[in-house]
Amino acid sequence: MKRKEFRKLISVDKAREIINNLHVLPQQEDSSLENAYGKILAEDIITEINVPPFPRAIMDGYAVRAEDTYDCSETEPVKLKMVGNIQAGSDEKFTVSAGEAVEIATGAPIPEGTNAVVMVEYTSEENGTVSIYSPVALGENIMKAGSDIRRGERVLKAGRKLGTREIGVLASVGKKDVSILKLKVGIISTGDELVRPGEKLTAGKIYDANSYTLYAGIQECGAFPLLYGIVKDNEVVMRKALETAVSGCELILTSGSTSAGSGDVMYRLIDEIGETLAHGVNIKPGKPVVIGIIKGVPIIGLPGNPTSALMIFNEFIVPLLRKALGDTKRLKKVEQGVMGANFRSEGRQQLLPVGLIRGKVYPADRGSGAITSLSGADGFIDIPSSTEFLEAGTPVEVTLFGEVEKPDLLIAGGFCPGIDVLEDLSGLHFRTLYKGSSGGFSAIASNTADIAGVNMPSRDPRGQDGILYNIPIIENMGLSGVVLVKGYKREVGLLVRQSSPISGLSDLPGKRLINRNLGAGTRALLDLKIEEFAAQKGISKKEFTNSIPGYSSGAKSEKAICEAVASEKAEVGLGIRNCIEINGLQFINLAEEEYDFLIRKEILETPEVLRFLEILNSREFASKLPEGLHVYERTGEIISFE
Length: 642
Ligand code: AMP
Ligand code: MG
Fold this sequence. Notes:
Layout: H1 12-20, E1 27-32, E2 45-46, E3 56-57, E4 61-64, H2 66-69, E5 78-86, E6 100-104, E7 116-119, E8 123-126, E9 129-132, E10 142-143, E11 154-156, H3 164-172, E12 177-182, E13 184-190, E14 194-195, E15 206-207, H4 210-220, E16 224-231, H5 235-248, E17 251-255, H6 266-273, E18 275-279, E19 290-294, E20 297-302, H7 306-324, E21 334-339, E22 343-344, E23 350-357, E24 360-363, H8 372-375, E25 379-383, E26 389-390, E27 395-400, E28 409-413, H9 417-426, E29 430-434, H10 436-445, E30 451-454, E31 457-464, E32 467-469, H11 471-477, E33 482-496, E34 513-514, H12 521-537, H13 541-546, H14 558-566, E35 572-576, H15 580-583, E36 586-600, H16 607-616, H17 619-624, E37 629-630, E38 638-641
Parallel strand pairs: 5-6, 13-16, 13-17, 14-15, 17-20, 21-24, 28-29, 28-30, 34-35
Antiparallel strand pairs: 1-12, 2-11, 3-10, 4-6, 4-7, 5-9, 8-9, 18-19, 19-20, 21-27, 22-26, 23-24, 23-25, 25-27, 30-36, 31-32, 33-35, 33-36, 33-37, 33-38
Helix pairs in contact: 1-7, 4-7, 9-16
Residues 189, 191, 193-194, 206, 208-211, 255-259, 303-306, 369 line the site of adenosine monophosphate.
């Protein structure tokens, strides 16, 4: 077996060259018009008819000889004899002579002998006589035969992607079936840990994301994806899957198992049953890429990490598919922006997923393996290996992902169902990035979010019952140029099953707790409550928390906490009242916390933020908040920090 450049990282340009030289040949197939959307036209479409096929009226009115109207005016109308009426679709034949007119509807064929249509607005009719008050020019209000599309004209060129307008053109020229390109791309996901969406997740498993992102991406290019399913990390089954795919498609994409780890057999297998053209591309993310050919069918092994897999797909596979399908249009949609935050790179060429909001570019990279780096990204920036630091304000070019719907507001901070209500009522599109209140404060500090939802309590004599929300954190961090908009209150408490013997903090020792993650305001509130409680009992806080198994656990969402309690993985959880309903749990109230919004001053006057605040202050919002959340007299109050 030949080994080419095996285990040696190749440059991005070299990888592109190898991939572009792969022979990927689509087949052709007839498709009905209904199924042709998004596909690539295989043939030039030369029309055999004129569109419209006959001269037709484009206004309701009277078909006349233009010369009969030349001398008329508003005060001296010309009177013509009405000799008939033509509706759209009519095949009635009329011959119209001088001094005559025919009433005609929009879309109806122009009768023999006439050469213009007077709009009905400039006429009046009485006893079979039409008065015309305004002259018309020759051909006025008539669409000539073939003026839209002329017989023999090439209306669509092979290689054109069929969108709504193209489908409309094909229908207009009478095409029922069209020949389209059929490029079958097989998809294989590898990994013992993968489970198909819809199936039950058992311990240690994750859902297969790559099969479906690739499926959608392939469709977006106008090719035909074929799912070959999830293949275990086992040489025998993997080989079988590859062989099946080889006989059924023109290109194979696999994901996972491409590193040189012990369980990673894909690259060895390709090398064994086919030929390896490259293994490893010097790019982040996505270093472990394998390019090979098995029995003449090109195969590209993408990294397993969903972000990496999709980035490599966009960067290398999309151009390959488009080229194979003869789609020669400019491949990339780019938009200019400026960095909204500093970013440190690491001296390797990097495709960094970014969000793009109001011209500001924010890194959306959430570390390897996070599918949310993609759903939170609008595109990516290509950072060359020579750039180590991108300062906020640096102009950059963003290559957009497919058809992205860009958000109006980027919201960070602690998870809250009230934010969904704000989004629904405002009609704005939010991108949410829940990283706890602490994450919210840092996101505002680093200018990587527009608004942060925060509920961080501190002991402070200025607050009610000695607890003040958010303000001490802003002061300690020295945040300036921000405002804190008071939001609403949330009932926080312990979540237990209906049969639970737990009725308050005193029952916690010895009971397995599922806590919120570090950095969550609600967790900090529990800490404060326990501190108070322990002080009353005359014990140290540490002593008390040490007696609660799971105290140091940290679930990211209320939902996960409810589920853990409902499924008896834990006896008690911490959360807000509203989420108990889903799982039929009981709620033991501990406190009411204040959930506020931290906003950078510079965007306070943007239409998006104004709308956000309008909704926050609205009655409708107050009435739509889920149980356990409520507005109060301070809702909407703005506290400014210079
Ligand atoms: P691998 O390249 O097989 O070592 O996979 C790298 C990482 O990506 C691992 O954490 C895998 O669990 C994950 N991964 C692999 N394939 C998929 C997939 N189809 N969907 C989601 N995650 C995946
Ligand atoms: Mg794997």
